[in-house]
Write a structure and sequence with these properties.
The protein is mostly helical and 243 residues long. The protein has helices at 5-47, 56-76, 82-90, 99-120, 136-159, 168-187, 193-203, 211-230.
Length: 243
């Protein structure tokens, strides 16, 4: 039986919504893993002294991101970060209409992970909140710079066919770990509003939260714009040095 035009359009819309729901689910799982493992390691450090080394925390953040990139990167793009999602959209590598679904999944996963961690672990005062140890403006600049490097690596390996795609997880996880080692003592090296919002609410530390929204958004957007500027035009096949 032939379907009407309205039925056909309805079917397309249903398929599109199904695809968005799959992507959002992948983002939820990846972000949940990030917060559960990363913030969970911080919570374990405080609640169970000696069970984990402080030096392991940056490595844990980097490793969980690397694993999740390989696990769901082919489904959702493995953003796990509202600032990364917006930067991709501004660089025209991601549809703007899908931003709300990604943001809902990312922020929702962060809260869900902390709720589960609070249930599983003994009571404590730390939930992995990112707290600046330096003055406000230097902290803002630090978060912006760290987020710039994170997004610069992400957009290069994710959107440029000349990059070594099979190493995407290693590259992205590696830059997360490096930034955590360098920026952790200064700001907590969030680079991710979703990673910072839920812990801040659980710890009632809202005063400096704006740093972990504005810094990452500025840094990731600048990185996306910068990479789009320095990448060569694929139409110019004989351009030296980049094509």
């Amino acid at each position: 039986m032939l379907r009407s035009c309205g039925d056909y359009r309805s079917g397309i819309k249903e398929n599109r919504m199904l695809r968005i729901s799959h992507k959002a689910a992948a983002e939820f799982i990846g972000t949940f893993a990030l917060v559960f493992a990363g913030c969970g390691s911080v919570m374990v450090l405080e609640r169970m002294p000696g069970a984990i080394s402080p030096l392991a925390i940056p490595i844990i953040f980097g490793l969980v991101i690397a694993c999740m990139v390989y696990a769901v990167g082919h489904i959702s793009g493995a953003h796990f970060n509202p600032a990364v999602t917006l930067a991709f959209a501004i660089a025209r590598h991601f549809p703007k209409k899908e931003i709300p679904a990604y943001w809902l999944a990312q922020f929702g996963a962060s809260f869900a992970a902390l709720v589960l961690l609070s249930f599983l672990l003994p009571a404590g005062s730390t939930y992995g909140a990112t707290i600046p140890k330096i003055d406000v403006i230097p902290a803002l600049i630090t978060e912006a710079v760290l987020s710039f490097f994170l997004m610069f690596v992400i957009i290069s390996v994710a959107t440029d066919t000349r990059a070594e795609g099979t190493m995407a997880g290693v590259a992205i996880g590696g830059i997360v770990a490096v930034c955590a080692f360098v920026g952790g003592p200064l700001t907590g090296a969030s680079m991710n509003p979703a990673r910072s919002l839920a812990p801040a609410l659980f710890e009632h530390r809202m005063l400096d939260l704006w740093i972990y929204f504005i810094g990452p958004f500025i840094g990731t957007i600048l990185a996306a714009i910068t990479y789009e500027w320095i990448r060569c035009d694929p139409k110019k096949q004989n351009a030296k040095g980049c094509c």
